[in-house]
Amino acid sequence: MRLVSLDITNFRVIKEAHFEFPDAVIGIIGPNGAGKSSIIEAISWALYGNQVARSGKDEIKATYAAPAENAEVRLTFVLHDQTYTVVRRLIGKTERSEVELLRDGKPESVGSLETKGYVGQLLGLDWRGFLTSFLARQQELNALSDLQPSKRRDHLAGMLGIERLDKGIQRLKEEMKVTEGRKESLERLLPSQETVAARVAFLKEQSVKLYELVLARTQEQAQAEAATTTLTTCFREHEAKKAECSRLTAAIDGARKGREHLSEQYQGLTSQKQQMIESRSALETLAPSLAQLPIVTVELENLKQAKARAALKTELATQHVRSEQDRQLVVGKLQTLQTEISRLDQERQGLVPELDKKLAEGKQQLEQAREQFAKLNGRVEAHAAEIGKLKKQVVSIDRIGPDTVCDRCRRPYGNDLPMIKAHLEAELAETLKAERTMRAELETLKGSGKVLKGQVEDWERQSKRRFEIEVKLTSLWAEESTLAERLRQLIDELERLQRRLLEIGEVTFDARQFATVEARLKQLESARQEHDRLAGFVSHLGKVEADIVEVAEKLRVADADLKRQQEDLTKVGFDETAFALAARQLEDAQKKLENARAGQIAVSRDLELARQELADKEEELVRLEAAQKELEACRDGLYYGVKLGGLLTEFRELLIARIRPRLGEIAGQLIDEMTDGRYNLIELDEEYNIRILDTGQFFGIDRFSGGEKDLANLCLRLAISLSLTEAAGLSSSFVILDEVFASQDDIRRELILKGLSGLKNRFPQILLITHIPEIKDRVEVLYDVLPTGLGWSDVRRNGSRA
Known about the structure:
This protein is an alpha+beta fold. Helix content is 70%, strand content 12%. It has 15 helices and 16 strands. It has helices at residues 36-48, 112-123, 127-134, 138-146, 149-160, 162-189, 193-290, 293-349, 355-399, 417-504, 511-538, 541-572, 576-674, 706-727, 746-756, and strands at residues 2-11, 14-20, 25-29, 71-79, 82-91, 96-103, 106-110, 135-137, 682-684, 690-694, 697-700, 734-738, 765-770, 781-787, 793-797, 800-801. The strands form three sheets. It has a seven-stranded mixed β-sheet with strand order 8-12-13-3-14-15-16, with helices on both faces. A six-stranded antiparallel β-sheet has the order 2-1-4-5-6-7. A three-stranded antiparallel β-sheet has the order 9-10-11. Strand 6 (96-103) and strand 7 form a beta hairpin. The chain is flat and about 180 Å long. The mean pLDDT is 81.
């Protein structure tokens, strides 16, 4: 199988790319996370669908793609001199899956299931076998040497497909275990077959007897039903008379109670009429006193108004006294406040005129004096240093002689020493004089500075006091304004209260008179309420008289109805003794009928149970016969299962015995080609440890360098791929090496690359996937996978966009 081309659109992080695969070493290089592995996944996904993806279908389509856009992979490859193209898509927003396969440009299969089966049949590999045959990863190479022996055997068994044979053997053992259990269960069931046959014969005989008994019970039930029907008709006639008698008796009782109610109603109406006549006389007695009610009402209202005016005048007088007290208090506070304002204003006027200006000028003069003092002090210190230096020079002149060489001109001092000393002493005297003058000036500046500083500090204290006075005056003026406004409000309030008091004038109110009139009014209002009640009661006198006449007529009609119903009751002719006899006879007949029915049901139930058990036992006989046949089948299955298990185990051992030498043979050929004949034989021991022939003796790979060890692991991994492709009937093919250089240093990478260049006769197409940029110069075709920062990656071939 050889790859021809690959086109990718919106697959994971690859937005759009076209790959061509010549017979060459092809490098796919880019940083981690750029999408290199997505290219290999696209090849596998095109062939086998979602099951080879690292995630579900919803994460295959690129996140940056618009909902209406498709995700598509188109893979073209050559197999057995025929060209195949498989196209797999996720359509639009719903991401519906579509796949088709073409052979030499003509449709060969359509749909996921059909294409999956066709690809598996075409390549002879499922998706796991495909990945093992054509893709080698660094972790697989490490596993071949780093795993423990038992885990290494399991790992290789999985890669070579032997684990599926192991699973088949294990499944056969499990099925035989189930069959053994079924056989034992059937053997326990079969001894009861004779017992079941005897029970079937007994049930057949019993069913005949029960059927005859059911017929007899059915005849008895029919006779009892006829007798019960006759007695029921007789009883219903007596029962109808009793019902009519009960109805009439109840009607008579109702009529009697209705008459009693009408009688009570007639007596009540008569008594009510008498009370109304008496109430009419009482109304005439109350009429004279009610004439005084309007007069007493007016008198009480006048007294209430006088009481209200008296209370209002008292309240206004109290308010006037309080307001006057508040006015006097505010006047006192206002006078005290004005005195404080006058004192503070006089204190402010007594401060230094133009204080801010003088303070600013004083601060400026003080700063200038400080700067002048600092400069002069610096000059004094410089002169002091100079004086020290000159004194040292004078002392050093006394210590040296004429033969001493000058450190500048490099000549002896000779007779110039006295002159040099005189010059230094004169310069020292002049410098001392200048220092004394400057120190005197320094003291003068210090004195004037202290005076100026004291004056500035005094101005600052006055400025601070002036600020405090102004803040206090602002607060006092605001308070003065508030008090003045309050005083004006109080004066206005006093004037208003005085006017109200004058308007009210003198008020006379007698509390005793008020209480007397109020009590009299309550008596008159009670009399009026009683008058209204009696007048309303007497107003219904005419209706009560009419109701008396109506009730008297109803009494007459009730007496007539009661007499008629008593006559109807006599005509019914109900006999309680005859009714009781008919009821007993019917009850006895019903009991006989129920007994007959119960007997018939019991016998029928026994017959049904016997028939049901007979059917069950007959079915059980059939099942036991089938179980006998199944038991024979189980015994045959166990016999042939043991035979098959032995054959599969022997086949597995033979397969492993043949695979291990074959893998060593292929790996030896590969390492011979990759090392130019330096090493030409590899063998695998029973633990699948790699042993390499060197100087006529086989050694474990731990004896060799790291690069040679990696090369041997790679040869073994490639031997596995070749074995699988040979078993699938595939000739020279491609191989994908995914990050096999990740843990290698430069020397080991160079050794592996050199070895790979010798494998073109076995692997015409070698795809190297790596993030190591140094590999670029060692491949024949280069694809760079570069992130764009926009959510997808660009693919470039030899520098140009793919």
